[in-house]
Amino acid sequence: MHTNMKNVTEQFNIEYKPFKALLFYRYQNPENDHRNFMPDDSTDLYVESYDIGKQGQPINAHPLSISEMVGLSEVFSSAKEMDNGYLRCKELLPHNLLSLDQRTNGHALWYTPTQQRVVFFTENLGIPSGRASVPAMVWKATADTLSVFALKGKAKPNESTPLYHAPFLNIYSGGNVCMGNVAIQITKQTSLAEFMQLWEEYFFQSNFSHSINGSSSTKDDTVALWRTLIGRDEPFPQEQLVKTHQTLKSLL
User: Fold this and answer.
1) pLDDT in tens, 116-125
2) CB atoms within 10 A of CB 98
């Protein structure tokens, strides 16, 4: 079972080959001897493991090892997590989804185009909260962490697309967002669409309060820049974006 849906559309052409087979032996109490048998506490089981040779034949029969049991347990654990609904898609995959990993504390990677958003600031910055243009962005989130980057242009990003520092406050140089006291409510039942929407809301509905990355988030002072952007309809000035040393591929 493969639950890592990284680069989703490419996986339809992946060929899977058998590499392991398990044979279950049972000793059954004669008192429970009947057809349609299901193992219970009165049943002894023995599991034999076989490797699969190059020609597809079972070879190297041996008792199921501890490491094999651990690997098998992880497979069933992943299946159980998917059954819980975490990052499952109820409809078609979102058009702006770039990568998806549904394993334990897995992540989603997506982008948003240039848009107008309401942006909030703490009073001490002297920046009025209000609508402003924001650049295209790349988002990478797990159940409890968020990283964001900015993009230039309007095209959908690919692996070689350069990433820029997100031109906001409360963001570390590596893109990690300081969420402060935001109450993050993402559970094992959160679907993919809900997951993406919630993280965008958490980010834009929190109050930007301080600069973590110094003034290097934008070419001009970030606080001074946002004082000039609030309430304007003009696109975000892309010449203010500062390039990182990363491309989108580094987030996959």
Assistant:
1) 999 999 999 9
2) 23
**Beta carbons within 8 Å of 38's beta carbon, 6+ residues apart:** none
Q: Report strand pairing: 58-63 vs 44-52.
A: antiparallel
The type of residue at 151 is L
Q: Which two tokens stand for residue 6?
A: 């990284």
| Structure confidence at residue 239 (pLDDT) | 98
Confidence of residue 12 (pLDDT cuts 50, 70, 90): very low
Alpha helices for 162-241 (secondary structure H):
192-205, 222-229
3-state SS string for 23-47: EEEEECCHHHCCCCCCCCCCCEEEE
Burial of 146 (0-12, 13-18, 19+ CB in 10 A): buried
CB atoms within 10 A of CB 132: 19
d(CA 67, CA 45): 18
Q: What is the pTM of this model?
A: 0.69
Per-residue tokens: 145: 């962490």
Please provide the distance, in angstroms rounded to a whole number, between the alpha carbons at the two ends of the chain: 20
